[in-house]
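Ribosome assembly RNA-binding protein YhbY, pasting as requested.
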Amino acid sequence: MLTGKQKRFLRSKAHHFNPIFQVGKGGINENLIKQLDDALEARELLKVSVLQSCEEDRDTVAASLSKGARAELVQIIGNTIVLYKESRENRQIKLP
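Structure tokens follow.
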């Protein structure tokens, strides 16, 4: 689990990022989870956009994505979800 200080640090890091993934009408599937997991391994921190066409609400999507990719949910702001997962191979972010 991340502390409040760590979440603030990660939020500031993710502020300038653009969402890499979009969850739309298709919802969440195994392929999306796999790609998300790979991207988190490479980047550690990323944003996911929840489109208006998505049938599930953003909280449900955030919970499913973080559970599926075994990542930490940093923030939900608007329709954007910020996820963090420490990389096994190439750690770039040093948490406070």
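Note for the archive: The first strand starts at residue 21 and ends at 23.
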